[in-house]
Amino acid sequence: MTVPVEWYLVLSAAVFCIGIFGILTRRNALIFLISVELMLNAANINLVAFSHFYGNATGQVFALFTIGLAAAEVAIGIGIILVLTRNFGEADVTLPTEMRW
Amino acid sequence: MALDTLGGEDWFLHLAPALVMIATALALFGVDALDPDSTNHRAVFGVTLAGTLAALGSAIALLFGMGPELGTTLFSDQLVADEASLLFTLIVTSVTSLVVLGSYDYLEDLPDKGEFYSLLLLAATGMVLMAHANSLATVFVALELASLPSYALVSFLTDNRGSVEGGLKYFLIGALSSAVFVYGISLVYAATGSLLLSDVGTAVTEGVDQTGVLGLGVLLMVAGFGFKIASVPFHFWAPDAYEGAPAPISGFVSSASKAAGFLIAFRVFTTAFPLGAMQDAGIDWVFVFGVLAVLTMLLGNLAAATQDEVKRMLAYSSIAHAGYVLIALAALKSGGAHNDWVLAGGMLHLFVYGFMNTGAFLFVALAEHWDVGRTFEDYAGLGEEAPVASAAVTVLLFSLAGLPVGGGFWSKFMLFGGAIQNGFWWFAAIGLAASALSLFYYWRLIRALWIDQPTDGGHELDGTPTGLYVAVLVAALVTVGLLVGVGPVAEVAFDAAGNLVG
Question: What is the pTM of this model?
Answer without folding.
Answer: 0.93
